[in-house]
């Protein structure tokens, strides 16, 4: 059964699409993720909430019934093919996803109502700005974008820059050095290098709210994305005060020529 368009799960997946720049395969089923055998001996494929092949990422949105008893969902008086009621089977299958998905080389991110703007019953208030901000941080955890950002932050400190709280909450990293200010957008390894670079440039453009020549902008990318980032000509980057930085696979940082 697919996602209901009005469900909190569909809302979360749609926001993740915006963060990742790729449309998810909703309720995707893998050949290797199976439920327990029924009376016929057949094992049905277990769906995941959303899968982004380009990011090799699975997101599961787990509402309150995944973590605490909820009789309405658990149906404690009925046994499933697993020999337990639905609540126990849900926990069993969640644990199977938690094990099998990473074992097959994919990254699994679990999002819960408490991670977003939700009420005491776990219903999302649907505050896109706050929820997008939270999801960006959640999806970046343990990702290559985090590696790139950390390497660049270390390099900035060595160059005399001081990281500060970003003026715009969506900014990955912002730093000052004397009267200079640097607004940074970082990207990690991705199979959609061109799309990711275009999105990053667009995000930097939206942050260009002042005309001070002492404010510059940085696009920070891994080596694999340098060619995609260089599709914007150097003279255009100079006019926009956008500097391009490469983070190599071993964590070295170098500024690319304008």
Architecture overview:
The chain is 34% helix and 25% strand. The protein folds into two domains: 8-140, Endonuclease, Chain A; 144-255, Trna Endonuclease, Chain: A, domain 1 (3-Layer(aba) Sandwich), CATH 3.40.1350.10. Helix 1 crosses helix 4. Strands 5-6-7-8-9-10 form a six-stranded mixed β-sheet. Strands 1-2-3-4 form a four-stranded mixed β-sheet, sandwiched between helices. The mean pLDDT is 87. It has eight helices and ten strands. With 258 residues, it is of the alpha/beta class. It is elongated, with a radius of gyration of 22 Å.
**Percent in strands:** 25-35%
Number of strands: 10
* Major pleated sheet: 6 strands, mixed
CATH class categorisation of the largest domain: Alpha Beta
Topology as H/E string?
Answer: HEEEHHEHHEEEHEHHEE
- Please state the second-level CATH architecture of the largest domain: 3-Layer(aba) Sandwich
User: Regions with pLDDT < 50 over 5+ consecutive residues?
Assistant: none
| Total of DSSP H or I helical runs spanning 4+ residues | 8
Numbering strands along the chain, what is their spatial order in the largest sheet? 5-6-7-8-9-10
Radius of gyration equals 22 Å
Arithmetic mean pLDDT: 87
**What does the overall shape look like?**
elongated
Helix content: 25-40%
Distance between the termini: 51 Å
Helix-strand category: alpha/beta
As for the number of domains, it is: 2
Assign the CATH topology of the largest domain.
Endonuclease, Chain A
């Amino acid at each position: 059964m697919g996602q209901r368009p009005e469900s909190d799960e569909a809302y979360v997946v749609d926001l993740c699409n915006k963060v990742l720049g790729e449309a998810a395969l909703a309720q995707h089923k893998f050949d290797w993720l199976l439920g327990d055998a029924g009376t016929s001996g057949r094992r049905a494929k277990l769906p995941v909430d959303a899968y982004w092949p380009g990011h090799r990422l699975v997101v599961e949105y787990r509402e309150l019934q995944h973590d605490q008893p909820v009789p309405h969902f658990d149906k404690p008086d009925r046994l499933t093919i697993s020999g337990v009621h639905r609540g126990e089977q849900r926990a069993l299958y969640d644990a199977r996803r938690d094990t099998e998905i990473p074992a097959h080389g994919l990254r699994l991110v679990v999002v819960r109502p408490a991670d977003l703007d939700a009420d005491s019953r776990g219903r999302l208030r649907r505050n896109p700005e706050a929820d997008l901000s939270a999801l960006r941080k959640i999806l970046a955890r343990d990702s290559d974008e985090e590696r790139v950002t950390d390497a660049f932050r270390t390099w900035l400190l060595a160059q005399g820059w001081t990281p500060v709280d970003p003026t715009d909450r969506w900014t990955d990293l912002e730093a000052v050095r004397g009267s200079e200010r640097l607004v940074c957008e970082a990207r990690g390894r991705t199979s959609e290098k061109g799309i990711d670079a275009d999105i990053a440039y667009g995000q930097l453009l939206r942050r260009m709210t002042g005309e001070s020549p002492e404010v510059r902008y940085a696009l920070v990318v891994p080596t694999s994305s340098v060619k995609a980032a260089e599709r914007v000509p150097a003279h255009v980057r100079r006019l926009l005060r956008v500097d391009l930085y490469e983070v190599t696979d071993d964590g070295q940082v170098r500024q690319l020529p304008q």
